[in-house]
Amino acid sequence: MQTLTLRQRLSPARFLRGPGPEIGPVQLDRSRIFILPSSSGMLFAVVLLVMLLGAINYANNMGYMFTFLLGSMAMVSILHSYRNLAQLQFAAGRARPVFAGERAAYEIQVGNPGERTRHVIDLELPDQAPVTVDVAAGQTVSVTLYRPAVRRGRLAPGRIRVSSVYPLSLFRAWANVELDMNCLVYPQPGPPRSIPPHAVYRPNQAGDKGRGVDDFAGFRPYRPGDPPRHLFWKAVARDQALLVKQFGGDRADELWLDWNDLPDLPVEERLGQLCRWVLDADREQLRYGLRLPGTEQPISSGPVQRARCLEMLALFA
Amino acid sequence: MPANDTSLDLRAHAWLLLSTLLVVLPHVPRLPLWVTLFAACLGTLHLIVRRAGHSLTRWLVIGLTLTGASGVFLHYHTLLGRDAGVALLVVMVTLKLLESRRPRDAFVLIFLCYFLVITGFLYSQTPLLAMYMFATAIVITATLSVVTLAGRQLPVRRLLRDAAVLLGQALPIMLVLFVFFPRVVGPFWGLPKDAHGGITGLGDTMTPGSISKLTKSDALAFRVQFAEGDSTPAPAERYWRGPVLWHTDGRTWSAGSLVVLAGAIDRPQVRGKGVHYGITLEPHSKRWLFGLDLPVFVSESATPTADFQWLAHQRVTSRIHYEAISYLDFNTGALPDELRTAALQLPDNTTGRMRRLVGNWRNAARNDHDVVRAALQHFNLQPYIYTLEPPLLGDSPVDEFLFSTRRGFCEHYASSFVTLMRIAGIPARVVTGYLGGEYNPVGDYWLVRQSDAHAWAEVWLPGAGWQRVDPTAAVAPERIEHALDRSTQGAGEAASFLLGDGGLMARNWRALRHVFDALDNSWNQWVLSYNPKRQMAILRSLGFRHPGWKDLALLLVVLVGSLLAGTAAWMFLRRPREQDPVARAWTRYCRRLARMGLPRRPDEGPQDYARRVTGERPDLKQPVWRITDTYTRLHYGAPGNRMAGISLLQKLVRRFPQQTAGSTH
Predict the structure, then answer these.
(1) Are A249 and A213 in contact (CB under 8 A)?
(2) What's the pTM?
(3) Is B41 tagged catalytic?
(4) Which of B368, B454, B514, B520 is catalytic?
(5) Whether the complex's predicted ipTM surpasses the cut of 0.90
(6) B590 tagged catalytic
(7) What is the 3-state secondary structure (H, E, C) of B427-463?
(8) Å from A298 to nearest chain B CA?
(9) Mean pLDDT of residues grouped by 10 in chain B (665 residues)?
């Protein structure tokens, strides 16, 4: 909890934008929580004013009393509003990579170290619909916030507006929380297009035992991640162990996905096309590498290779 | 701001319905029957429609709205004013209930409900209604939080408790605002005609039957508290002076066009000790202030007139309190000519019989005193009957009453007596007001009700000035000492009076009524009659020399601010109540030792703590170790009867350290 100078405390920028991205869990306190009347609170104020005028006009003391009761209740509800948000903790969770055009999903951990349930907490990214949660005493709730990922690269969630109109909807208490987290946005995959035959033929010393998809080569035990269509279903039906049919090709498909293969496309479309090829190659369980100007991902295969290649494409500058 | 477009669930609808019901209920006796039925039908329709999961079309709602509004207009010929306004609000609230689908609608409905609560206070401000309305406010506020919680299922008790906590915490701030909020003297705009409707009281005219009709009302006229040490006047002296009537057309008595202020006549010569008393006057929407005959001072800003009325500068439309001083023994002195003329005015329906009757008295009398006495004797000896239900009288009511019906109420006796005196050439006038009152021993004050309304006469006698003469006393002397008993009246029958104390039931009932009225009275004194004047008095007593609205604003900011800070401190610093009885008892024990100057260090375990404490206070050795052992056994879960252990620990802590300390010191 940092202390603020008076100038910082009163700056309108802090009021509007919050303190900027922060690492680690953020706890709401006095310096972050702002409270203003909600739209229904404004209406309530108008009603109170009319009540007061009526009480004055009729010189009705119970009218005064009741008007003041409601006014005081509104004032006290500010304290309850504050208590509903105070000390809530926010920590960044995971943010799985997405492709441009999809929605980036940010997992936020909302922790309540206090002794009472926090009600109707709205978490909201700019221009997005709010997600409303309740956090029981001593609990932590995981909330996923979405934000459209338009362009590739690293996408921060931006300012999270934490707010609540609890208890009476007359006031909205809010705080801006900016967590230091990112979602990796891969380029949007381009249209299907055959991979140029950059295949490198490397004869296998042990014969044509390279893995491929052409010729049936035998069985091996199932490993997670094997495509279901390679499962030996007859064995499954016979209640035996899960077996996977292995295929061999006459050559191991190793190929380079190269930036220079797409000379006629603008940068983003080139990256999109390469992205498509990475996905295709991965689906085909090929061994592949990626060449971009000034950088290169050596030939390999599997989920790690896919992730590395896609990240390279996402962050290509 | 997120647009909350979720629809309300069935539970929220149930709460809204309950709130509406609670706020409309107190209005029902005053509302036209069709409004109540209309509202009830809409409420039922609402239930059916919601249960089926539908909602009404916009056009139907608009149609119903127009129907309701035009119904109110046709009934009252206006949509403004208190009664029409309330009826319209009731219609609108039930319609809003019907068309509420989203939280936004619900908020509007809830605020309308709050508003309906306040309109209830325009009719009545009793403590009972205030309590009912506070309870209603809790339900409405709970409804507000149900809508806020948007479908979360909190238990009803919890919702009500939270609402009660909010309103409870608001109470101190409310009180500060009530006392110190700058009071503006209203009204801003003309009050609607019905603003003070339904008020009973003495009118500015008197016709046969007007006062007997008024005495049917049990409503309070005013309360009187005599100053300490001042002896309460005897029952026969408790004439509360009100409007004085000079002019008659033979049937109706009125004040007449003549208004002479007190400055025009000599001050009355008073003898004896003045009676000091305070009057809390119920609003009667007229200007006069009642006082014991003869009031010489009234603290309220009012003008005294030559006939000893006190006229407030404004109509009394709210309850007011004033102090007054009266003298029972007085001589009003000379009578100016214009007043003499007015006091001798005669209607043109006097008859020969009347003149002959007076002529006989005059012939036998040496002076005016004798004439008055003769008249009273006449009423006393002739078969006159004092009755609440006198027969109707024709064109010449005084003549008919005197010679044929001879049954009448105080207004008959007063008006015929004054007419006869005027025929005899004695200046006379009718005075209306109240006679008597009921003592409330709980609050030590007197209740004067409309049923105590009375009319009597005043004659001007040379040397004595204006003198009160009550011809009713000549007919029914009991009336002077006792209140009327309305319960046993038949047409034309002689009036009966509340003579005894009326048996056990009546006594208990009266005692209970006194308690309630005393409560009501304190409520009036402290709450309802609070006004700008009292506010200034409070400020002056707080040391403000010339209190103005700036002082009030400053005081308000400081007081409300500190109350809010106090509430915040209570909310945030209060340690939540420990749930575990073992830990609670242990904390209590540690607190007690801390008060004795031996606080437990945060890192200190129970055993270490006990060693340190017994080291410094060997006298506490036995109880400290018993508590520590019991606590350790319970806390670290040693086997044994846990319940017995807990109660033992609680007992030991409760007694700690008095018992042992007492035995060793």
Answers:
(1) yes
(2) 0.69
(3) no
(4) B454
(5) no
(6) no
(7) CEEEEEEEECCEEECCCCEEEEEHHHEEEEEEEEECC
(8) 49
(9) 60 90 91 88 82 76 87 84 87 86 90 93 88 95 92 86 94 93 71 59 82 81 82 83 89 79 76 87 87 85 85 83 88 84 88 90 89 90 84 84 87 91 92 88 85 90 88 80 63 63 70 81 80 82 80 88 92 69 82 85 83 88 88 75 82 75 40
